[in-house]
Amino acid sequence: MSKLKVSNEIYFLGAIAVIAFLFCVYNLVNLLLIQNKSATTTGTIISYTTAIPSTTAFHNSKWAQLTYKVNGKQYVSQKSIQVPFSSEIGSTVQLRYDTQHPERLYSFTPARILISLGITAVCIIAIVFRLI
Fold first, then answer.
1. Which of 44, 85, 104, 123 has the most CB atoms at less than 10 Å from its CB?
2. 3-state SS, residue 76
3. How far apart are CA 42 and CA 50, in angstroms?
4. pTM of the predicted model as reported, rounded to 2 decimal places
């Protein structure tokens, strides 16, 4: 009975590792594809919402609408992007936009690649060294 439980846990960790790795590859490919056709600028937060209507940062995220300039022209983001929870209206944040269509923002963050790669590594280490 205990072998079946270990086997199921290994399958579960293996599935998590595969999903995390595919997420990592997807984000890495996106980064490489947008690298040459995007640029960064500084935006100013003009409004924001939180995922949970609470002011607590625990299990919550903040999404902001921004105003930013590209080649002297002022833009207002059409969609909200995630910003640090400590950000307030008037705060500035770095953002990435499409150079051909500056009204399009990319909500890419390198942390996604690193975190998903870390999850993959932890799952593989747990499987290989039978830490479960």
1. 123
2. strand
3. 21
4. 0.70
